[in-house]
Design a protein that fits this description.
The chain contains five helices and no strands. By secondary structure, the chain is an all-alpha fold. It has one domain. The longest helix has 23 residues. It is elongated, with a radius of gyration of 23 Å.
């Protein structure tokens, strides 16, 4: 790249970055940890998920601007855990040959309720 080409590219950089703007979501660190926790727990990496949950709790204990934040992401983590556990229980029961239809239906309702609680968090 020549000096003239480099200067032209540098001159265009502010226009390019201005057109890109800010990211649509500028997530807090706790939101990113929560996403990692959700993924780890969903794929069965329970030890990693447990460590991430501890980190999430620690990050929420830190004062933000001199005030304690609510337990929002930690509540979401707990509700996600409940949903994944209910989903796994339903899948296990529904996959059994000769499973009682009422038990499968109850497990499905439990999974739906857990999902709605998580989705409402």
């Amino acid at each position: 790249m020549t000096a003239t080409t480099r200067e032209a590219a540098t001159a265009d950089a502010p226009a390019l970055t201005a057109s890109l703007g800010q990211p649509r979501y500028n997530r807090r660190l706790s939101d990113k940890i929560l996403g990692a926790f959700n993924h780890a727990y969903a794929i069965g990496e329970t030890e990693t998920a447990a460590r991430l949950r501890d980190i999430l709790k620690d990050s929420e204990d830190m004062p933000a601007d001199g005030e304690r934040r609510d337990r929002g992401p930690l509540v979401q983590a707990d509700r996600w855990t409940a949903f994944v556990d209910a989903r796994n229980a339903y899948q296990d029961l529904a996959g059994r040959r000769g499973a009682d239809a009422e038990m499968v239906d109850a497990a499905l309702k439990s999974m739906r309720a857990a999902y709605l609680r998580w989705n409402d968090a």
